[in-house]
Each structure stands twice: as structure tokens, then as C-alpha cells.
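Need residues for this backbone.
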């Protein structure tokens, strides 16, 4: 079960809670140039790389705080965090790893929330290749390679595997199946022609235009596990003002608008 959006959890426990409340109240009215300046390092699932960069830039402009983004597969980032990587915030592509980090004492429980619900698509760099039903396209076999993210590391890869199994194709693709580390690499495989088709996030292709737009079809969300993407404040960032404020920004009007603009459902409990 999802947690409700994170509250300003430090208000009740920090001696500087009044100052923090004033800082939060100023967001959206004027940049927080006078607030304590920290830099937050945010671990971001590959599907959310571009939205995260846009969000980081908007947040820095609005707050005066700095955010750096480090991108990878959810599973790889989870392993790095578990081994002491100095990330302050984790934006995963599912809810499993954030829950595990909370259970392991590596994340602050009351800060975990769902920031987006993702959508899986099949994409081709060829504008004329994909027309209509995704399942019929894959079942036709009229392609040399189809790329997916590693199901053991990437939730979008796990969703792609579940989809191929639902279509009765998982066992029979053989050498036609290319595995990438994450959906960012899947997109690269498809964009360069190493794979004619790739299972990627809708957000990766929704805003492409012109010669780069290619073609895609949306996979029925009822045949793969929900891509309930969760954020959490890590223990390393527990006292980092920029990290705390960035999570608040993700749940505010400006942050939600950016997330929705990239094609995600956002603002869920």
C-alpha cells in the first residue's frame, strides 16, 4: 500500500522548524536566495532522467538550492545506496526498492511517496514501422531485434518481460531479444538501429518531434505490474535542506505540472 505524500517531517522534531516553515512558505513567491544552501545528490531511475533534469533546473531557479542528478537502473542505484553511495534522494521506477531501503534503515519512512505512475510503450526510430496493435507487431516477427531493459535491474524491463510472457513470446524470441542495462540504453539501441523495436517509457518518446519522433504503440497496462514510481529521502540526506525541499517541490503544483507534461500520471496518494 502506498504511503500518503510526504509531509514536512522535520517540523515536529527539529529546533529550527519555524525557520523551515518560513522557507517553505516562500516557495513559489520568490527564490530562496537567503536560505541555507546545500547541494542534493539525487539518484534517478533511467526512465525519469529527462524529467528529473527539468525538475532540478526549475527547483534551483525557484529555490536557490542546487540539485545534481545521477541516472541508472533502479536496481543498480539500489545496490549503490546499499553499499554507502552518498545519495540524498532516490527516485525509483517502482515502489519495491524504496520500501526495502526504509526496511533496512537507509531511508526516512515518512518521506516515501509515489511521484509518478509510468507507462510502457514499444518504440521504433522508423516513423512508418509501428501502426496499431503492439501485440500483433511483436507476434509478426518482422524484425531482427527487440530491446528490453534487464528485468533483474530495471522495473521497465520487468514490465517488458511480463508483457512478452502475456503475449506468449518470451520463450521464443531467442537471439532477437537484446537486453540493456536500463531503458535509457534501450532507447539508444532503438535510436541507432541496433534494435528495430524497444520497450521504453512513454515519457522518453512523448516529446520527440520531427525526424527523431519515430513511431510507438502503448502497451496495455493491465498485463504488466504497475510502474508505481516512488521517491524517498535517504538517511544521507536527512539533514540536507536542498534534499528536503526538492521532495516538497515534487509534490507542489509546479513539480506536478512538469511530471504530467512528460506523460506520467502524478499527484497520487
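Answer:
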Amino acid at each position: 500500500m502506498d504511503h500518503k505524500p510526504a509531509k514536512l517531517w522535520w517540523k515536529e522534531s527539529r529546533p529550527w522548524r519555524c525557520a523551515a516553515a518560513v522557507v517553505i512558505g516562500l516557495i513559489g513567491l520568490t527564490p530562496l536566495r537567503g536560505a541555507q544552501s546545500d547541494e542534493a545528490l539525487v539518484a534517478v531511475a533511467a526512465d525519469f532522467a529527462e524529467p528529473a533534469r527539468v525538475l532540478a533546473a526549475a527547483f534551483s531557479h525557484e529555490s536557490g538550492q542546487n540539485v545534481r542528478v545521477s541516472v541508472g537502473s533502479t536496481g543498480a542505484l539500489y545496490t549503490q545506496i546499499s553499499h554507502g553511495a552518498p545519495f540524498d534522494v532516490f527516485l525509483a521506477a517502482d515502489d519495491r526498492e524504496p520500501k526495502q531501503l526504509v526496511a533496512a534503515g537507509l531511508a526516512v519512512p515518512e518521506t516515501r511517496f509515489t511521484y509518478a505512475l509510468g507507462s510502457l510503450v514499444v518504440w521504433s526510430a522508423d516513423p512508418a514501422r509501428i501502426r496499431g496493435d503492439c501485440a500483433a507487431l511483436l507476434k509478426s516477427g518482422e524484425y531482427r531485434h527487440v530491446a528490453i531493459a534487464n528485468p533483474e535491474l530495471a522495473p521497465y524491463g520487468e514490465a517488458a518481460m511480463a508483457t512478452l510472457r502475456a503475449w506468449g513470446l518470451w520463450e521464443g524470441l531467442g537471439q532477437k531479444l537484446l537486453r540493456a542495462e536500463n531503458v535509457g540504453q534501450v532507447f539508444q539501441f532503438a535510436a541507432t538501429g541496433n534494435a528495430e523495436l524497444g520497450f521504453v517509457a512513454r515519457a522518453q518518446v512523448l516529446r520527440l518531434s520531427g525526424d527523431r519522433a519515430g513511431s510507438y504503440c502503448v502497451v496495455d497496462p493491465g498485463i504488466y505490474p504497475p510502474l508505481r514510481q516512488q521517491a524517498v529521502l535517504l538517511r544521507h540526506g536527512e539533514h540536507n535542506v536542498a534534499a528536503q525541499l526538492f521532495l516538497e517541490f515534487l509534490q507542489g503544483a509546479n513539480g506536478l505540472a512538469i511530471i504530467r507534461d512528460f506523460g506520467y500520471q502524478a499527484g497520487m496518494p
